[in-house]
Amino acid sequence: WVCPGHCEPLSWCPAGRRACTDIISTVEFNYSGDLLATGDKGGRVVIFQREQENKSRPHSRGEYNVYSTFQSHEPEFDYLKSLEIEEKINKIRWLPQQNAAHFLLSTNDKTIKLWKISERDKRAEGYNLKDEDGRLRDPFRITALRVPILKPMDLMVEASPRRIFANAHTYHINSISVNSDHETYLSADDLRINLWHLEITDRSFNIVDIKPANMEELTEVITAAEFHPHQCNVFVYSSSKGTIRLCDMRSSALCDRHSKFFEEPEDPSSRSFFSEIISSISDVKFSHSGRYMMTRDYLSVKVWDLNMESRPVETHQVHEYLRSKLCSLYENDCIFDKFECCWNGSDSAIMTGSYNNFFRMFDRDTRRDVTLEASRESSKPRASLKPRKVCTGGKRRKDEISVDSLDFNKKILHTAWHPVDNVIAVAATNNLYIFQDKIN
Amino acid sequence: MFARGLKRKCVGHEEDVEGALAGLKTVSSYSLQRQSLLDMSLVKLQLCHMLVEPNLCRSVLIANTVRQIQEEMTQDGTWRAVAPQAAERAPLDRLVSTEILCRAAWGQEGAHPAPGLGDGHTQGPVSDLCPVTSAQAPRHPQSSAWEMDGPRENRGSFHKSLDQIFETLETKNPSCMEELFSDVDSPYYDLDTVLTGMMGGARSGPCEGLEGLAPATPAPSSSCKSDLGELDHVVEILVET
Predict the structure, then answer these.
(1) Which of A81, A405, A430, B209 qualifies as a cystine partner to B33, CB 3.0-4.6 A?
(2) Domain A4-15+23-437 class?
(3) Which among A202, A209, A331 has the least Cβ separation from residue B40?
(4) Contacts of A95 by beta carbon, 8 Å cutoff, 6+ apart
(5) Which residue of B34, B139, B210 is in closest CB contact with A81?
(6) What end-to-end distance do the CA atoms of chain A give, in Å?
(7) How close is the nearest chain A Cα to the Cα of B158, in Å?
(8) Cβ pair A361, A370 in contact under 8 A
(9) CA-CA distance, A117 to A100, in Å (whole number)?
(10) How far apart are CA A129 and CA A132, in angstroms?
(11) B11 touching A, CB under 8 A?
């Protein structure tokens, strides 16, 4: 894997409006992979566009340059509860492209917005009622009519909010997912999942509600949800107890009863007080084929066959060496970090992040895995990334890093894989790295 | 926030108490570490109430951990039973009231969703949520982290639960707490011990043992003074001046 192009790995440039540089909170390629959207803690969305192949600059293919930047969400204050609603973008999901414009959904804890991103490369000149600089002309001076003409201009990319879906979530939204019907989408918070129609903002259907009548009995929350990529009536949601429920909206309006229930039986030999916490699923993703789904818990990534509920078909250890450090990680709250995971375009490989700016890739066919690092030092242009290794005990080899030297503040929670090519986007706190497979 | 009925005094089972005490005296490192984990968890829950918008998932996971420890301690017999009337209030299968543990986090939810979706007709407009929230009891600026989602009677029970909490938690130096809670007639737990024990950051001690049952280092000694300011703040909120 290499960092493409002549430039350094793309860095995240803060707008300067906020005191601290903004931490990237979500990364998502669009359906073609030509656009890459990132959301940050400050409520901004930055969209990158892939450079087209250019014969004069053969290495430029694969570079992503800033295409559009806009402020999606602002901090709000809930006066009733005396609480601030963070503007941090929790998730971005693209809509499939239907015309020249691009659409995406972005959400913070409470409000989902549909944004239209469109290009403007022409402007009209020769208006009758106003001057070229926009000043209104004195109507008495208008003695003749002319037809305004369109002239080319420098490309301008505009983002405008087309829909705002608000006031439907009492708890914090953790997921949004666009349905394969391209008309509806779901949004999930800790206790409820709502179904929306993209055209309708003043109402939504509640399709899952796990809030107990008596909050004293609450022991489990929803952690992630996603629609099936092809079956528009099917979605899954994961829980803090390590379970996944697959629901079919055809069976009933309120999908509190699942169609399938996925849970791996616990290994009694490894039980500890932290067992439940580390089993909590932080992300769930269907494979592109729709035949499998992948879940990420604290220490591992699991691949499930939708036809088998009893246990996953694959389990990949991300950083098993942390198992002996769980108490410390509980103390410093790292154990609650929510890592995401993603599939490559052909579903043959999966990727997820770890600490110390490490991220892991697992090849499902060859059963090989690799640990790579996203950092300035290791990402010289066109130089391959060196595999990294964590030393778990005993003698540390030269290139290895010991578990105690890992920097737990450098966590890679968000990664994305191009839907077709071997190009990946890795968010390391406030830096965005894009790598591509040098075989390309 | 401390768990209701976290520790209970066993009345009328003196032999067991003595046995338990004897067991405690020869307390294993595992128990110490388990206790540290419990204390750490309680502090985390308490801290999460002070945050602006607590993370519900985190709160639930911590509360579940506390419950697990509590259940194990009950089975061990290291859990001492509470006075009978309190025991009735807290049934065994719900030793720790999640609501008490995380009341503020969940009490902030004021709205209730429109009931009865029925057969899939359009849900009562989501705008229903707005009028519902506007009917909530006014909040106290100071105790914004301790929202009550109901009228005054909840507060009464809240105080009572606190009674139980404090009377049942062990106390080493009750003096500094007693004057703060002088209107409640039960002995109180020394928050300092909990807070500072954790602030002292018992890093290697409890953590190693609990994961591999390796021999543990004793919990570091704590000092009251540095955390009294924070303590005052917490108490202020609890007493709801």
Answers:
(1) B209
(2) mainly beta
(3) A331
(4) A102, A103, A104, A105, A114, A178, A182, A198
(5) B139
(6) 10
(7) 13
(8) yes
(9) 9
(10) 10
(11) no
pLDDT, tens digit only, all 440 positions of chain A: 655 432 233 333 222 222 235 899 999 999 999 999 999 999 999 999 998 876 666 655 668 889 999 999 999 988 887 788 999 999 999 999 999 999 999 999 999 999 999 999 898 888 888 887 878 888 888 888 999 999 999 989 999 999 999 999 999 999 999 999 999 999 999 999 999 999 999 999 999 999 999 988 999 999 999 999 999 999 999 999 999 999 999 987 777 788 999 999 998 888 999 999 999 999 999 999 999 999 999 999 999 999 999 999 999 999 999 999 999 999 999 999 999 999 999 999 999 999 999 999 999 999 999 999 998 776 666 677 888 999 887 777 888 899 999 999 999 999 999 999 999 999 999 899 888 876 53
Per-domain residue ranges of chain B: 38-78+95-102
Task: Kindly give the interhelix angle for B228-239 and B191-199, rounded to the nearest 10 degrees.
Answer: 130
Give which of A43, A16, A175, A195 is closest to A115, Cα–Cα.
A43
**pTM score, two decimals?**
0.72
Contact B108 A254 (CB under 8 A): no
CA distance A187 to A194: 5
Contact between A205 and B117 using a beta-carbon 8 Å cutoff: yes
Is residue A374 a contact partner of residue A424, using CB atoms and an 8 Å limit? no
CB within 8 Å: A167 and B139: no
